[in-house]
Amino acid sequence: MGGSIETYFSEDNPMYLFETIHKRSNKMLSDFLERLAVVVRKIRSIHTVYFHKLSRFDGEFVDVYYSEELKYARSVGYKVIPLSSYMFQNMNPGSPFGEFVGSLFESRLKARKEGNDSMAYVYKILMNSLYGRFGINPESTQTEVYNYDKYNKLVMTTGFHYAEKLSDEYYIVVYKNNTEWVPDMQWRPPRITTVHIWAAITTCTRIHMYHYISREDCYYTDTDSVVHGSPLPDDDVSPTELGKFKLEHKLNKAIFLAPKGYSLWIDKNQNLTKHKGLAKPLVSDKWYETQYADLKLSIVAPVDSNFQINWATLDIMKKTKLVKLSTPTNTKREPVYDNNQDWVDTNPVNVKDYAR
Question: pTM surpassing 0.90?
Answer without folding.
Answer: no
